[in-house]
Amino acid sequence: MTEPQVQCYSGREYAERPMSFTWRGVAHTVKAVEKEWREPGAKCFRVSTVDDGLFELCYNEQQDEWSICEPGGKELG
Fold it and tell me: Are 72 and 56 in contact (CB under 8 A)?
């Protein structure tokens, strides 16, 4: 499975705010960051998309990779 591709705003550090992402071959544009939080070694964001989707994007800083989960924890890729 192809890992998700996330484009984000990076100012002082990488992955300050996701702007768009591609998951399962479909491009999604982030409408709003609803919530953001940190976990050990990761930055996480709950985002809504312009097509009314709701996703959780997490960036694992040690592995330098993104994952996508549905709210509630079901990992999508």
Answer: no
Cβ neighbours, 10 Å, residue 19: 12
3-state secondary structure of 5: strand
Query: What would the pLDDT profile of 13-71 be if each residue is shown by its tens digit?
Result: 888 999 999 988 889 999 999 999 999 999 999 999 999 999 999 999 999 999 987 67
Strands, E, within the chain: which ranges?
5-9, 17-23, 26-39, 42-49, 54-60, 65-69
Structure tokens given for 26: 């479909």
- Domain limits of the chain? 5-69
